[in-house]
Design a protein that fits this description.
Number of helices: 11
CATH class of the largest domain: Alpha Beta
Distance between the termini: 19 Å
Number of domains: 2
Number of strands: 20
Oligomer: single chain
CATH topology of the largest domain: Rossmann fold
Largest sheet: 8 strands, mixed
Structural class: alpha+beta
CATH architecture of the largest domain: 3-Layer(aba) Sandwich
Strand content: 15-25%
């Protein structure tokens, strides 16, 4: 089952009643890997799946009861009778479509939808690091640009005491727009200041987007020139003071830029940090070095002055990314703490990556950064975007919740259990980023009463439906 479907259950035989389930030490659950390569399965089917017309909205599968004479099928989840569409008129016991063949328990469909635009990679670079560190980071960025697909779009933001959004369309005279690092930046402020749309109106002006977000093949020369010319942040640093670093404002500008130029389309923010945020929203420590950086014991004892406010701020940014399906990766390379504990929700909820090393010249950082852009056998990026996972169960048990890099979609269905484990109270979750190694743990609750136990040997059913955008920007499920 694991090789065929990417599913590993905690038990192969389940309890027959709720009472029996309470005696199980290990929870009733499974690990599910949505993009696990199917062994001996059919290629993606180039048509839409057939959904049950009942409340469960399950997809046609080998467990369905088929009436070939009347051209109908019965859903194993809600027992609804459904008619086959006209193009299934020729099916019989010896002429079955792929989704009804018993050994094909996992099927992939290539949905017939308009293609999504190419993904956007927003590079958010900390220039307040030391010259040597900045040079190592620049070398890694220039190397990684060669791994980005030519049709992928890129944008560049740098920050120190202020935030600079670079105009990568200009090849003759580089320009950048500067935001104050001490103030909170909203999407509307980003849109108005960058001239991406009429003041006070939603939606960016397509003619202006290309100044900041362009296909890599079109801006390769200008982007490379800007990166090669990056210099250490010139803002002066007082004696016994930390560097002014507005990481929170920079991340807010990146989120706002994607919101007003690429909302609900594939996008990824890559944040490169060289120290803690000391300026503006999201600050995790004071500028004065007399105040030490908080430690684990400070957080446990609720003695971290900046922790709650910073965490709340980054949680807000994380939710905005989830709403639009965007991903956040954090590369924190410094001997000092960078405040990743406060920022972790941005990565956890969007399915991004956190890499922590002591320096940007460390081989761990370089290799990890390269792995973001790994390709598969068909030379496509090994990543998918804007995923949604829904779990459907038969009436003998329900979904208690999920644990993993996902966010609740608050979908209340008959499959939702009263008990909540992890992200519970829903049967569907948003997964902004999915790779072949992405797994989610789904927990279940047996609902059958001990006075009416399930007969021994009776089957129970669950179906995992995952919708996502492939790295070739085609929709799949």
């Amino acid at each position: 089952m694991e090789e065929q479907d990417g599913v590993r259950f905690s038990f192969s035989i389940w309890p027959t009643s709720r009472l029996e389930a309470t005696r199980c030490v290990v929870p009733l659950a499974c690990n599910y890997t949505p993009l696990k390569k199917i062994v001996d399965g059919p290629p993606p089917l180039p048509y839409e799946p057939i959904f049950c017309r009942g409340p469960c909205r399950a997809v046609l599968n080998p467990a369905c009861q088929i009436d070939y004479r009347s051209r109908m099928w019965v859903c194993p989840f809600c027992a609804t009778r459904n008619n086959f569409p006209h193009h299934y008129a020729d099916i019989n016991e010896t002429n079955l479509p792929a989704e009804l063949i018993p050994q094909f328990t996992t099927i992939e469909y290539q949905l017939q939808r308009p293609y999504a635009p190419p993904p956007v990679f927003v590079l958010v670079v900390d220039t307040s690091v030391k010259e040597k560190e900045l040079q190592a980071l620049k070398d890694s960025l220039l190397m990684a640009l060669n791994l980005i697909p030519e049709n992928a779009r890129v944008a560049l933001i740098t920050f120190g005491a202020t935030v600079q959004v670079h105009e990568i369309a200009s090849q003759e005279m580089p320009k950048c727009y500067v935001f104050r690092g001490s103030k909170e930046v909203t999407t509307q402020v980003v849109q108005d200041f960058l001239g991406l749309g009429p003041r006070g109106m939603k939606g960016a002006n397509p003619d202006q987007i290309g100044r900041f977000v362009q296909s890599y093949s079109e801006c390769e020369f200008s982007l490379t020139s800007i990166l090669e010319g990056l210099e250490h942040d010139p803002w002066p640093v007082k004696i016994e003071h930390r560097v002014l670093r507005c990481s929170g404002a920079a991340l807010a500008v990146a989120v706002g830029l994607l919101e007003c130029t690429n909302a609900n389309n594939p996008g990824r923010i890559l944040l490169f940090l060289g120290g803690p945020c000391t300026e503006g929203p999201g600050a995790v420590v004071a500028v004065d070095k007399e105040e030490p950086m908080r430690g684990h014991s400070d957080i446990d004892q609720d003695n971290a002055k900046w922790y709650k406010k910073a965490t709340q701020y980054y949680n807000g940014l994380a939710q905005r990314c989830v709403t639009n399906g965007h991903i956040v990766d954090i590369f924190a390379c410094a001997l000092d703490q960078c405040g990743v504990a406060e920022m972790k929700a941005c990565v956890e909820k969007t399915g991004g990556t956190i890499v922590q090393t002591d320096t940007f010249s460390n081989i761990v950082f370089k290799e990890s950064f390269k792995r973001i852009f790994m390709r598969d056998d068909e030379n496509n990026l090994r990543m998918a975007f804007m995923g949604e996972l829904e779990v459907i169960t038969s009436r003998e048990f329900k979904v208690a919740g999920a644990i993993g890099c996902c966010a609740s979609l608050n979908k209340k269905t008959a499959c939702v259990a009263e008990t909540e484990i992890g992200l519970g109270g829903t049967s569907a979750w948003k997964m902004c980023s999915i790779s072949p190694s992405t797994s989610v743990s789904v927990f279940f609750e047996v609902t059958t009463q001990h006075t009416q136990p399930i007969p021994q040997g009776q089957l129970r059913y669950t179906q995992f439906q995952t919708h996502y955008i492939h790295s070739t920007v085609r929709a799949s499920t």
